[in-house]
Automatic annotation (TrEMBL):
<keyword id="KW-0515">Mutator protein</keyword>
<dbReference type="GO" id="GO:0009228">
    <property type="term" value="P:thiamine biosynthetic process"/>
</dbReference>
<feature type="binding site">
    <location>
        <position position="39"/>
    </location>
    <ligand>
        <name>8-oxo-dGTP</name>
    </ligand>
</feature>
<dbReference type="GO" id="GO:0006260">
    <property type="term" value="P:DNA replication"/>
</dbReference>
<dbReference type="GO" id="GO:0035539">
    <property type="term" value="F:8-oxo-7,8-dihydrodeoxyguanosine triphosphate pyrophosphatase activity"/>
</dbReference>
<dbReference type="InterPro" id="IPR015797">
    <property type="entry name" value="NUDIX_hydrolase-like_dom_sf"/>
</dbReference>
<dbReference type="Pfam" id="PF02581">
    <property type="entry name" value="TMP-TENI"/>
</dbReference>
<dbReference type="InterPro" id="IPR022998">
    <property type="entry name" value="ThiamineP_synth_TenI"/>
</dbReference>
<dbReference type="GO" id="GO:0008413">
    <property type="term" value="F:8-oxo-7,8-dihydroguanosine triphosphate pyrophosphatase activity"/>
</dbReference>
<keyword id="KW-0227">DNA damage</keyword>
<dbReference type="GO" id="GO:0046872">
    <property type="term" value="F:metal ion binding"/>
</dbReference>
<keyword id="KW-0479">Metal-binding</keyword>
<dbReference type="InterPro" id="IPR029119">
    <property type="entry name" value="MutY_C"/>
</dbReference>
<feature type="domain" description="Nudix hydrolase">
    <location>
        <begin position="18"/>
        <end position="146"/>
    </location>
</feature>
<dbReference type="GO" id="GO:0044716">
    <property type="term" value="F:8-oxo-GDP phosphatase activity"/>
</dbReference>
<dbReference type="InterPro" id="IPR047127">
    <property type="entry name" value="MutT-like"/>
</dbReference>
<feature type="binding site">
    <location>
        <begin position="50"/>
        <end position="53"/>
    </location>
    <ligand>
        <name>8-oxo-dGTP</name>
    </ligand>
</feature>
Length: 324
């Protein structure tokens, strides 16, 4: 069915746009390449690239729609999949709600059953293909790891360097170290960059974006207060922000931050007895955020699977990554 609406007087009110619920699947190979497909002639946005999938039928779950669509479009049967991210995007003619999953195991070799072209590409190279405008947060999610490691507040920098090999490969590493003066903090960042990068870790700096830029860090982490005070996203490869609720998640997205860290999900040793969001509220906020969201607060490594089932990007923590 064509997704067009009749328009009165040139403007298109949001209420007039049809909302389309879509399940999209990112099949990922062990090598890290993902499958993208070109939309065939005759469909809306023909010629553009996308993750295979299609409209969720009334009464159908997103996962069932995903399995059905990938079978119809590619001839594969998805066996293992987990939620990745939900994205709402307003095109001129329609509002699309993408329920995006990542598929890690499937039966059959993908074939273009609708005569569509497809390609296996690394997430870093997807922009070589004109991909649908709604998919930006999906690409960010695919380029980010599941683990965001925060340093303990009073850690000794040399001791931290010695323990880097025990961290999950590819993790983000936020250097907090609030007890250090700026010069000592900068020295610690400089000492950390090469060993961390050698292990595939990305070094994320606190304090100011200027400091992160001048130290050549991989990114900057904003506190919620800094987030409110900013008027533009700093020019760094990665920008993250702490968020406690919907207003801060909205702000992070509006500024073009890559991801937010939402908490406190459970009471933790850092915030004992503090008001915790709980999993249900954290899940609601995450699924409406339109950007990748890490959860923080009282989480252990074996919570990761449950956290990701709620569409979180992954977890952030101190103690879970630096056991005594
Ligand atoms: N599958 C898929 N759809 C996407 C992505 N991003 C995005 O904006 N969309 C939009 O979501 C909608 C998906 O609808 P579709 O045309 O694929 O639906 P379908 O497979 O059921 O097709 P049909 O209704 O022609 O049989 C389109 O409006 C498309 O532009 C994406 O990455 N994958
Ligand atoms: Mg489709």
């Amino acid at each position: 069915m064509p997704n067009t609406v009749r328009e009165a007087g040139g403007g298109r009110r949001e209420a007039q746009r049809p909302r389309i619920a879509v399940a999209a699947g990112v099949l990922i190979r062990a090598s890290g390449e993902v499958l993208i497909a070109q939309r065939p002639e005759g469909k809306i946005a023909a010629g553009q690239w996308e993750f295979p999938g299609g409209k969720i039928e009334p009464g159908e779950s997103a996962r069932d729609a995903l399995v059905r669509e990938l079978h119809e479009e590619l001839g594969v049967t998805v066996r293992e999949a987990r939620p990745l991210i939900k994205v709402v995007h307003e095109y001129r003619e329609r509002t699309v709600e993408l329920d995006c999953w990542i598929g890690t195991a499937w039966d059959g070799e993908p074939q273009g059953r609708e005569q569509q072209a497809f390609a296996w590409v690394t997430p870093e190279r997807i922009e070589d293909y004109p991909i649908l405008a709604a998919d930006g947060p999906i690409l960010t999610a695919l380029r980010l790891p599941s683990h965001y490691v925060f340093t303990p507040p009073h850690a000794d920098p040399d001791a931290l360097i010695a323990r880097l090999p025990a961290l999950p490969r590819g993790a983000l590493l936020r250097l907090r170290l609030p007890a250090l003066g700026d010069d000592d903090y900068a020295a610690c960042v400089r000492a950390m960059l090469a060993p961390a990068r050698g292990l595939g870790l990305r070094v994320i700096v606190d304090r100011t974006p200027q400091m992160a830029v001048s130290l050549g860090a991989d990114g900057w982490h904003a506190t919620a207060a800094q987030l409110h005070a900013l008027d533009a996203r700093p020019a760094l490869p990665w920008c993250f922000a702490s968020a406690h609720g919907a207003a801060e998640l909205d702000r992070a997205r509006a500024l073009g931050f890559d991801a937010a860290v939402l908490g406190t999900v459970r009471p933790s040793a850092t915030h004992p007895g503090g008001a915790a969001l709980g999993f249900d509220a954290a899940a609601r906020l995450t699924q409406a955020a339109n950007l990748p969201v890490y959860w923080i607060g009282g989480l252990q490594l074996d919570d990761l699977r449950d956290v990701q089932t709620q569409y979180a990007q992954g977890m952030a923590a101190i103690r879970a990554y630096w056991p005594d």
